[in-house]
Amino acid sequence: MQAVKIPREKTVELHETAVPEPGKGWVRIKMKASALCRSDLFRYHGEKVFDDTGDESYITPGHEPCGIVDKLGENVTKVKKGDRVAVYLALGCGVCEHCLSGNTVLCSSFRCIGFALDGAHADYMVVPQECCLPLPDGMDYITGALSTDVGGTLYTACKRIGVNANKTVAIFGVGPMGMGGVLMAKAFGASVIVSDINEERLALAQKLGADYVVNSVETDTVQEIKRITGGKGADASIVCSGANAAYNGALDCTKKGGSVACIAETHNVTIDPSRQLINKRLNVMGCWYFNICDWEELTHFIMTRKIPLNKISTKTYRLEQAEEAFYRFDSGMEQKVVFVWD
Ligand SMILES: [Zn+2]
Ligand SMILES: [Zn+2]
Question: Less packed terminus of the chain by CB within 10 Å, N or C?
């Protein structure tokens, strides 16, 4: 079979490798859709996402997968051959408080598919049966893949910051995560304001339902959000750009006592906690991925609200075009880039 490798910075290769055999309790999945993620680009640029994953150069990337169960290892009881599944990206110890509560990503022995072990940018992958997320009938494979990282993260963030039909939500940055935020917040009934520096992205956000779009190059975003909300500020904000201005904009435009979900990864933001957080009694929370126990309600929400998550995918590629796919995704010209098989 073929598998993508990133042996060196900005080097994407397709390797011929043996089709993996599922071990005890594991299953093999024939891939149907595998989305590229911003975190794949860290590897593409020679940077590490997790400190403790060791040498990643020959680990197949891809942690937003969807496909068909193709072979079962011994003692597999939870899935069967032919099941359509998405894949939960986290492996944990299985017994700590976080694993038992479904938040495997918080486990101290958490390992991430596509970083610590081979991921989904390949014809086949093997995963523990516990990582298989059943795909509802009628959900296409691209929507399935995007329901994990994008859908799951933004659904969970919206719930945590209390998004509903009475709320105005500001979203900073409309790359794929922000775009997922627009779709989810609209599905919860909220009024949505988005801010970005890219006109094309703002146009797509509007097409996907954003009520107001603000080009932050031309307009003072915080002032504009205050104006739209009658001086009060947004009830909640979602930060989907790692820019200093995005983090600060969210803290400044959110009303007193409001909530801010931080999603965009960054190590370099300067804020004024007294003025921006404490005096305003803001609820600021870090949001990353989702609780595995929420998969059923998440996909039910996506299906019943007919949320077109697949519209966030602006380009699909075959695995053979991996080099072009990474290059194109890295250029920022596309939203989600997804490998597809047929
Ligand atoms: Zn991802
Ligand atoms: Zn654990």
Answer: C
